[in-house]
Each structure stands twice: as C-alpha cells, then as structure tokens.
Design brief:
The structure holds two protein chains of two kinds.
Chain A (H helix, E strand, L loop, with lengths): L5 H9 L3 H18 L1 H4 L6 E4 L2 E3 L1 H6 L2 H5 L1 H18 L9 H20 L9 H8 L3 H5 L11 E3 L22 E2 L4 E2 L11 H37 L1 H16 L2 H12 L3 H11 L2 H14 L3 H8 L4 H12 L1 H24 L10 H10 L5 H28 L6
Antiparallel strand pairs in A: 1-2, 1-3, 4-5
Helix pairs in contact in A: 1-17, 1-19, 2-10, 2-19, 6-7, 10-11, 10-13, 10-14, 10-17, 11-14, 12-13, 14-17, 17-18, 17-19, 18-19
Chain B lengths: L1 H29 L4 H8 L5 H20 L16 H11 L5 H15 L6 H9 L7 H12 L5 H4 L4 H17 L11 H4 L1 H16 L1 H4 L5 H7 L2 H10 L4 E2 L4 E2 H6 L2 H28 L4 H15 L2 H12 L25 H39 L2 H8 L4 H38 L5 H10 L3 H29 L1 H6 L2
Antiparallel strand pairs in B: 1-2
Classes of the chains: A mainly alpha, B mainly alpha.
C-alpha cells in the first residue's frame, strides 16, 4: 500500500467539512445538468416508436452538423454517452488513486473526441464527409415531434421540448408558463427578446460556463505553473525578471485588457476563453514559486540532485506533486473567477452572440427590467455555481491550512 | 522612511512600463482593418478621376494611421536600413501591369514602401534623379509623395505656428500635384514620352531638397532602430498628452479629465466603507469565534462573496430604481446627480450625491466585506491566543482594551496589505457598476472606447486606471511603513 499523495490527503480532510460536501454536490449537479442538457431540452424525442420501429432521435441530434460547428458541445455530448460507461466500469479502470482514474477518463474522452474529428478532415473524394453532410439537421426533422407525439405508438420526450437555438416568431418576451402554440408545449421560464426558450438556454448556458471555467483555468495553470516553477527553482536573475512579469500581471487591470481584446478581436467564445486564461496566471505563478522555494531546500531535492536527476525531472516529477494541494485550491477559485469573467463580458454585451450564455440572458434582463425572470434565473445560476466552487475551494483550504481565512 | 517611499516609487517604474508595453502590444496586434479603404481606390484607378479619389483615400488613411503610430514597426525598426537597391527592387515589383492581380501586387508593394515613411525619402530621391531608371519614376514619385507627406493632425496643429501650418499644407498640396501618373507608360517611360512628367519630376526633387533638413536622416539611421518605432511614438504622444481619440474628435486625456475623478472617489469611498464595516465585524466575530452567531455570519458573508456584483446591481436597479405607478422611485436609476443639481445649495447637493451614489457604492463594496473581515477575524484570533495578550489579561487590563488596542492594532498591518489588493480587484469591478447605473466614470469610458474600437482612448483610460491603482498601492505601502516600525527601521 503506497502512501497517499498530499493532494489526496487534502481531499480526504476537506471531505469532513460540510461546506465542501455541499459544494461538491452542487458542482456535480451542475455538471450533470450541463452534460445531459440535450436530453433535457430538445425538440427531438429521446425514444420514438412508430410503425417504422424504435429510434433514438436524440442520439442523431447529438452528432449532427450543427454540433460539429461547436466543439465544446461535441465534447459534452461525447461525455454524456461515456459517463454511464465510466460509472459502470469504474472499478475496472486503470489507476489506483481517484485522481489517476479521473485523468484516464479524461484521456479516453479526448481520444474519442479526436476520433470523431477524423471524418471532418478534408478528403479528396466524398468519403465520410459526405456521410456527415447528408445527415439531416435536427431543425428540419424534429420541429414538430412534440406536437405529433400522438402519431407514435410510444415515445419519450424531453421535459423541455425546445431547442436552445430555436426561435419562435411569436414568442418574444413571454412570461414563464406561456404555452408555445407552434410546439404545443409550455415554456418554464418564459422566452427572451429573440424568442428563445429561457430554460433551454439556461441549461446550455451551464455548458458554456463550465467550459470557460475549466479550460481558461487549465491554460492559466499551465502558464502559471511553468513560470512559477522556473522562477522558484532557477533563482537569480531569471527569478528577478519573472517576478517583474508576475508583478506586472498582478497590477494589471486584467479585465480592461480582456475587454480590449474581446471587443476588438472578435466575440468568439474561444477567444474569450483564451484571453481569460492568458491573463489570470499571475496568482498561480506566485503561489507555485513560493512552494518551489520552500520545497527546494528539502532533503529529497538534495537527494535527487546528488543522484544526478535533471532539473526538469526534479521540478516536474518530484517537486510539483508536492505543491498539488495549494494548486488545487487556487484552481478552484480560478474557475469561479473565469466563470464570473465570462458572464461579466456577456453581461456587458461583449459575449459570443452565437452561444447561450447566462450573462447574455442577464443583460437582456437589464435591458427589459419589466421581465424579472430574465434577471433572477441566470443571476441565481451564476451565484449558485460560483458559490459551489468557492465552497469546494474553501473546504480544501481549510483542510490544507486551517489558519487561513477566506 | 523617505528612502523606503522612494524605493517603492522606483520599483513602480518598470511595472508601469511593462504594463504599457503589454497593452501597446495587445492593441497593436488587433491591427485595425486599414487596407480596405485603400483597396477600393487604388486597385481599379485608371481614369484621372478615380486616381484622384484613390489618393484621397490614401491620405485619409495616412492621417488615421499616423495618429496611432501604426505605420511604424512596433519595438525595433529594421526597415530604416532599406538600401537604394532594395528600393529599386520594390519599385520594379510595384510597376503595374494590365492584369488585375498585378495591380493588387503593385498596390501591396507601394503600401510597403510608403509605410517606411520619411526614412525612405533619400533613396527614393536617388531613384528619381537617375535618368536610367525612368521606368521606375512613376511608382517612385507615388511612393515619394506619400513618404514625404506630413499629415496635419488636429492635436499637432495647435502646437505649430500658423505660418508653419500653412507651409505644410501648401507643400502637401504640391506633393499631391507633382505625383507622376504611371498608368499606361510601361513601354514608353516617362521622360521620353512626356515632357510634363519630366517637369514634374524636377519640381518634386527641388521641393524635397528644399526640405532637406526634415529628410536627411542618414546620420540618424542607427538611432532610428529604437527611436523611430511605434512604441516610442506612442510613448511620446502619451507623455506629452497628445493621444487623439478619433471617435470623440478630442485629445484622449481631455475626455478622461472629465471622468476619472468620479471613479477615483467611488473607489476611495468604497475602500473606506469596506474597512469601516469589516473591522468591527471581524473583531466581533473573533470574540465570538465558534459560536452560532459567528458561524451564521461566516456563512452569510461567504454567500455574499459569491454573488456577482452585476447581478446585485441589476436586481437593485430592478427593484429600487424602477418608477412605480405614481412615478416615484426609491433611488435614481442613472448618473450621480439630478439634472437640476447645479442650482442646489451645498448640503442639498451633497444629499443628492449621496442619494445617487448609495446603490453603486453598495454594489462596489459588499464583495470586499468577506475577505477583509475573515482575515481580520483569523488574525485577531491568533493574536488573542498569544502570550502578550495572556499577560495583559493577567495584569487586569480590561477585555475591550485587550481586544481593541492590543490584538486589533497588531492586526492592522494585514488590513493595509489587503486594502492594496482590494484596490486591484475594485478596478475590474467598477465597469459593471458604472455600466448598470450609467455613471460617467472611467469604466464606462473604457467600455465605450472598446466597443467603438477607439484604441488611443482605450489606452489612455487604461493608463489612467493603472496610474490610480499604482498610486493606491504606493499609499498602502507607505501606510504599511507607518503602521509597522520594523519596516521603518530597515530603511532609515
């Protein structure tokens, strides 16, 4: 039995805090809602049984051409299919610790994602590409599925029978509970100024928030860890220069920078993610540097040096795992910060207009103050998600360093 | 103490410069779409009328381009070294054939040439003087008139004497007239076929020789590597206050001068309020650490910390600033003063201001309660458990004195450090609050500039924000030294 890693010990200690458990539960709920959003809000039926046999229109909808235009949707859709497999085969997955198993799961997901891309590669002749192109888009086939439910022998429909990107001409700014005559279904949270179902957009908005949060923080972690590690390990003038850089980024009103780039370059969701990631690594770098400074005088580093290990191996294979716990804490708060950053941008009218985002809905609510559901639904969702992340981070922090306050 | 302050001030210079460089690089990378206006004119300009419109388009573009210093290389200028031979190669490539793609290529080459500015005037003049290179005279005179053209920018104009302004205007006009058309003359060459062109050429050479003091830069080639760059040009404009905002038709700092004090006051007040609320709150919870009230307050503050300020601002606007049936609202929904506030007496004016600023200040402030008061709570708790507090208690000092003048006072150093950090956070947050409550401050200005792609204004607003932030951090550093005698004694 090997000794538990520092990160694992911190996780185990954090689990004893009720805040942490609550945060994890809320976060898990958000992830589930985001992953299974197409099953919850879709015009396509989940199961459809008629004279032609039983079909699963929702699966076709998960991988149609619209989805391939938005890679984050594709990733979530793949995860929706893989999640039950993961749960069933959890014990058979390689890797002893939870962290390793999660990494294995993520690798499998990424591999699937890469494989699904293959048919999209340019080919000399039609090939697979034609296969994808011929697949009918959902917009054409399924608009009336809900209204025609009587035609099926048996069908299972999504609880919210509206697509997040479908607009209905007559449905502009309708209150919650309004029944959409073109689909014959109720809109739970009304509609927005463009005629979208707000509930469906809320569900898919969680995908955007989670994507931005995790990917932007991932980018920030990569940069911050790299710079912090080199700065702490190398010392001397390299440290001095990198510390200036970190200080510049700390003093930088980063939100203004994000504003400039996003307003001028393009309101693309990946530009936004990238920019948020590229501007939020300063705190991480400072933290990692401090940890590396503290670790580099420890005996095991000296031992490693005298064994002739290279600096890179020593830094990233031996010292880095020992700084995991504080990194995890900062990353959790960083995710919350990135989510706030994206919804703030969308709130200012600088978000990606092609995706459903909570901040965008909130901005609609600001412009139409008579329609309170446009304010409360997205605002509350952002609040709960950020609260969940902060609670997880706080639990970890208390477990790791009980003296520190929030 | 003073040497300490001076050191801190010195350390801020590289930070400030670094921020400038990064911001400059980011704005330069946006690369305003500049080639479009020129493409419409020059590509198809065959008739005299169209050629005229093309040159006008180029001149408009030139003016705009120069204003942001975009025609210069960003940080290092290596194109100042273009030799006479290099110029000839470019001109050969720029010589236009009848095909459309040739016209396009020719345009690109010419753009490249005249972007190099006054440094190129000398080699171009050499080409123009050379009778053997007559076939290049058309493109050369085109590039030359553009390189020697000096746009008269509004922000420059008032610095120049009227006579000088007139001189530049006349010279620009003459440059425009002396440009040799090169439309159909690929076979003929200019000199042999067209005595008019020869006359123009000689006049152009004479004109530029009269201005030799402006263009003889051969001795400045080396210094041009650094001094003739976009960043130096930008920094020069910035520090002499001549960043010009295209959308507002005014100097950027003039626009900001009306706006910055609002943001500065709001931030200062919000930090003061945050301290005034958090210090008693933190001490209060530290004295009751672990009790139900303490845990409840912690939970409450923790949730408060997670609410985005733009959500709170929108909700407040929705509930307290919307007029009811009688037309009355609890709070005003926009701005910082009523329309008629100029005619109010001073107390009434202040009351009006407070009435307007209450909700924005709350939105700016509530987020900092949590971190400040929780840090203070942890710190005071730690102090209360220390030896000196135990001895004070044993000596019979009253509990209030122990808590306030011993434990809290010793925790104030942390609070000051946190105050500086808070400032940096505030500078992201005020954009939302100003946006929702329509407050004409720096954040709103930055947002408008970003949406209108007004890079100079954006830059100036960021610089002022950074300046305010650095001043705040400096003040915090000084307070730190005032509060902590150990720091003072280190830098006597």
């Amino acid at each position: 039995m090997s000794e538990a890693s520092p990160a694992q010990r911190a996780l185990a200690a954090a689990w004893r805090h009720s805040w942490f458990r609550l945060g994890c539960a809320m976060l898990g709920l958000f992830v589930l809602l985001a992953v299974y959003a197409p099953f919850l809000a879709n015009e396509a039926a989940i199961v459809w049984w008629d004279a032609g046999g039983i079909s699963l229109p929702v699966i076709a909808d998960l991988f149609n051409r619209n989805t391939f235009g938005k890679q984050h949707e594709l990733l979530f859709n793949l995860f929706a299919l893989l999640l039950p497999v993961y749960v069933l085969l959890w014990r058979m997955l390689p890797g002893r610790t939870i962290g390793r198993r999660i990494s294995v799961c993520a690798l499998i997901l990424l591999a699937c994602w890469a494989v699904v891309q293959v048919p999209l590669l340019p080919r000399p002749s039609g090939g697979y590409q034609a296969l994808w192109a011929e697949r009918p888009t959902t917009q054409r086939t399924s608009t009336t599925v809900h209204r025609d439910a009587g035609a099926a022998r048996w069908c299972l429909l999504a609880p919210i029978p509206h697509r997040w990107d479908a607009t209905y001409p007559s449905a502009v700014l309708k209150p919650p509970g309004w029944t959409n005559p073109s689909t014959g279904a109720r809109t739970w949270l009304g509609t927005d100024p463009a005629g979208h179902d707000v509930m469906a957009r809320m569900l898919f908005g969680s995908r955007i928030s989670l994507t931005i949060g995790f990917i932007a923080t991932g980018i920030a972690l990569l940069i911050g860890t790299f710079i912090g590690a080199i700065s702490g390990f190398a010392g001397g003038w390299i440290d001095l220069v990198l510390q200036r850089l970190v200080e510049i980024m700390m003093c930088f009103p980063t939100f203004l920078l994000i504003l400039a780039v996003v307003a001028m370059t393009g309101r693309d969701i990946f530009v936004i993610t990238l920019v948020i990631g590229l501007t939020s690594w300063a705190g991480i770098a400072r933290l990692v540097r401090g940890e590396f400074l503290a670790q580099s005088v420890r005996d095991y580093v000296t031992a490693g040096r005298s064994l002739g290990l290279s600096s890179g191996r020593l830094m990233f294979m031996h010292v880095l795992p020992n700084t995991m716990a504080p990194l995890l804490i900062t990353a959790t708060f960083g995710i919350a910060g990135a989510i706030l950053g994206e919804s703030g941008l969308s709130f200012l009218g600088l978000g990606d207009p092609r995706v459903a985002s909570w901040g965008q809905l909130l901005n609609h609510g600001r412009e139409n103050p008579a329609f309170a559901w446009l304010i409360y639904a997205p605002g509350f969702a952002i609040f709960v998600l950020v609260l969940a992340l902060n609670a997880v981070g706080e639990g970890l922090r208390q477990a790791f360093d009980p003296k520190a306050a929030p | 103490m003073w040497s300490y302050a001076f050191r801190r001030l010195l350390w801020m210079i590289p930070t400030f410069l670094g921020i400038l460089v990064i911001n400059f690089a980011v704005l330069r990378m946006q690369g305003l779409s500049l080639t479009d206006t020129i493409a419409s004119g020059m590509g198809k300009g065959d008739g005299e009328r169209k050629a005229e419109s093309a040159s006008q388009a180029i001149e408009t573009w030139l003016g705009r381009f120069h204003r942001t210093g975009n025609d210069l290389p960003a940080l290092i200028n290596l194109r100042g070294f273009t030799t006479s031979d290099g110029v000839r190669g470019r001109l050969l490539a720029a010589e236009r054939g009848p095909q459309v793609d040739e016209a396009k290529r020719s345009r690109a080459e010419l753009e490249d040439l005249w972007l190099q500015g006054p440094l190129l005037v000398e080699p171009l003049l050499a080409v123009l003087k050379d009778d053997g290179a007559a076939r290049l005279h058309g493109p050369a005179s085109m590039a030359l008139s553009l390189c020697a053209y000096r746009p008269l920018l509004p922000e420059d104009a008032y610095l120049l004497a009227p006579a000088e302004q007139d001189r530049i205007r006349v010279r620009n006009e003459r440059l425009k007239q002396l440009r040799i058309a090169y439309r159909n003359d690929r076979e003929q060459g200019f000199i042999t076929a067209d005595p008019e062109a020869a006359r123009k050429r000689d006049a152009l050479i004479a004109l530029l020789h009269a201005d030799a003091f402006e263009f003889s830069r051969s001795s400045r080639r080396w210094s041009a590597i650094v001094s003739e760059t976009g960043f130096v040009d930008f920094a020069h404009r910035l520090f002499t206050g001549r960043l010009y905002s295209e959308t507002r038709k005014a100097l950027a700092f003039d626009v900001i001068a009306e706006r910055w004090s609002v943001t500065a006051w709001l931030n200062l007040l919000s930090i003061l309020i945050a301290w005034a609320v958090s210090i008693p709150l933190g001490v209060w919870s530290a004295r009751r650490a672990g009790s139900f009230a303490d845990r409840a307050v912690t939970g409450l503050l923790f949730s408060l910390w997670s609410i985005p300020s733009f959500f709170v601002a929108t909700v407040l606007l929705h509930h307290f600033c919307t007029q009811d049936a009688s037309g009355a609202a609890w709070f005003p929904n926009r701005g910082l003063s009523s329309p008629d506030s100029l005619w109010l007496s001073t107390p009434a004016y202040l009351a009006d201001l407070a009435w307007h600023a209450a909700l924005p200040l709350f939105c700016l402030t509530y987020g900092s309660f949590t971190s400040l008061s929780r840090y203070l709570r942890a710190n005071v708790q730690e102090q209360l458990a220390s030896d000196y507090v135990r001895s004070a208690r044993a000596k019979g000092v009253s509990e209030d004195v122990v808590v306030w003048s011993h434990a809290t006072r010793n925790s104030m150093v942390t609070m000051i450090t946190l105050g500086a950090g808070l400032l940096a956070e505030l500078f992201g947050g005020f954009v939302f609050v100003e946006y929702v409550f329509s407050i004409p401050g720096l954040g709103m200005l930055t947002l408008e500039a970003a949406k209108q792609m007004d890079a100079p204004l954006m830059m100036a607003a960021t610089v002022v924000s950074v300046g305010l932030l650095l001043v705040g951090i400096l003040i915090a550093d000084l307070l730190y030294a005032v509060a902590d005698p150990r720091i003072r004694s280190r830098y006597v």
